[in-house]
Amino acid sequence: MKLPVQSNNPDVGFQIAPMIDVVFVILVFFMSLAAQIRIEQILQTRLPGVAVASNATDFVDEQIIRIDEVGEITLNDEAFDPSADRELPMLKGTLMALKQSSDAAKSKLMVTVIAHPSSAYSRTIDALNALAVAGITDVTFTAATEP
Predict the structure, then answer these.
(1) What pLDDT is recorded for position 111?
(2) pTM for the full model?
């Protein structure tokens, strides 16, 4: 009687036991993780969107007028009108437009006047007259320090 010859690579077929072990480990992992996940309603989180404030927030639109030692007036580092012009028509027009836009946006317009210590006082008065014509009342003053 002859015994059948065994080959080097026997076909063992599909092994279900290791597959069941892996599925069981994954199942245990997700079950333990599910206990720590909180329901979204309990956390009371909100997605970004339109936020409604409980009270009004005042946004201040600050503009800076600088007067240098020779009398040149700049608004936010943009030069307006020659230093010999006392009427300042370009500055008045720009200030009026700023006042209208801040009134339309219902925001507060504040102007800070920074005058050089050696500038003429009449030039500061010219800037204040331009602010008065534009109807801007919230004005603060400061003196520039020597560099």
Answers:
(1) 93
(2) 0.58
